[in-house]
Amino acid sequence: MSTEPLRFDTKIAVLLREDLEPWQRLNVTAFLVSGLGATLPEVVGEPYEDADGVAYLPMFRQPVLVFEGTKEVVKAAHARALSRALPRAVFTADLFSTGNDRDNRAAVRAVPTAQLDLVGLAVYGPRNGVDKVLKGARMHP
């Protein structure tokens, strides 16, 4: 088995609006990355197992980097993700007041793209493309 660190030519990133409460940041991040894992099987690694043979679910095969930015930075990143046709997930402010998947999807569907009140964005793709999408964002502290 190689001890060389694995380098990925892709990046999984979450961009959060900087004015979110701590619980909102965690909630939004969890929701956003679930979309990537459910749709892009290549981002998910193999299942885990401990020394006693107890099985655990697989997780992403690479780190998820979390960034933050102003409302304007999130909006601009969304536009760049769309223009690059990168796989993406969105979380809007409206989703904090819904309580289920059906209502979540309806809340997003009800608003034109340019008017979405984005509080979070997840994106996956080539490292350099994701870096360009995240221009102006900073690593989450």
What does this 3D model show about the protein?
There is one protein chain. The protein is an alpha+beta fold. Helix content is 33%, strand content 24%. The chain has four helices and seven strands; from the N terminus they run E-H-E-E-E-H-E-H-E-H-E. It has a five-stranded mixed β-sheet, with helices on both faces. Strands 2-3 form a two-stranded antiparallel sheet. It is globular. 26% of the residues are buried.
Notable features of this structure?
141 residues; alpha+beta; five-stranded mixed sheet; two-stranded antiparallel ribbon
Which structural category fits the helices and strands? Answer: alpha+beta
What order do the SSEs take from the amino end to the carboxyl end, as H and E?
EHEEEHEHEHE
- Main sheet properties: 5 strands, mixed
Strand order of the largest sheet: 5-6-1-4-7
Shape: globular
Average pLDDT taken over every residue: 94
Gyration radius from CA atoms, angstroms: 16 Å
Helix content percent band: 25-40%
Query: What is the β-strand count?
Result: 7
